[in-house]
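Chapter summary example: a protein plus phosphoenolpyruvate.
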Amino acid sequence: MARRKYVVGNWKMNGVTASIADAQAIFAAATEHPGVDVALCPPFTLIGAMVAAAPGAAVGGQDCHSATAGAFTGSVAAPMLADAGATLVIVGHSERREGCGERDADVRAKAEAGLGAGLSVILCVGEPREVRESGGAIDYVLAQIAGSVPEDFDATRLAIAYEPIWAIGTGLVPTVGDVAAMHGAIRGALTARFGGKAEDMRLLYGGSVNGENAAELLDAGDVDGALVGGASLTAAKFVPIVAAAAALR
Ligand code: PEP
């Protein structure tokens, strides 16, 4: 099965009610590129409003708790995201791994919770700068994959986002060769563990993707799309990335 291109915006802790107009503009422009799956992950507070304002659009959460309900003040469960109209969730973003102390086992449990709630999951991995500089990036990321990818899942609903931490929000990007090498290594590890179904899993690149560099990064081997932070907040910045994905296939 051919993997469709997938371009996902992570709004992080940005956006208020007035920002829904930006989401509407993005989703409206994305209809010009029907060959690309486009999704936005706003803060929890905007999910319901975004779903209502853009019926049928793919809207997701940026995190979920591993439990389905309970005494977890401030957390949101995966079934709650689904109830709000979300169809996907990001788990294991480096800003949560690093800032909130999430370990691979936590990320795996969150991925299982998201899949169990019927959501698609984008599971993030990526190495810090010192690991890249010491030559250990592939081993580091493959260890994250081994520890955080669940054992049993529908491959069409689990995507991996390779996001080198040093590239997020910095304007720095790896070489196309380094992206292709990492994605090839991830695909190889997934195939070794899961066999043919790994071919159905989409591998996204994330880290300072913008309208200028998207075509080159998306064309790297085994890259099926992009997870985009800063350049996903407005149609003017985000739609050129979607267009670059559309032009590839
Ligand atoms: C991200 O946070 O997932 C991300 C890729 O951010 P940015 O595009 O801003 O580097």
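Key point: The longest strand covers residues 5-10.
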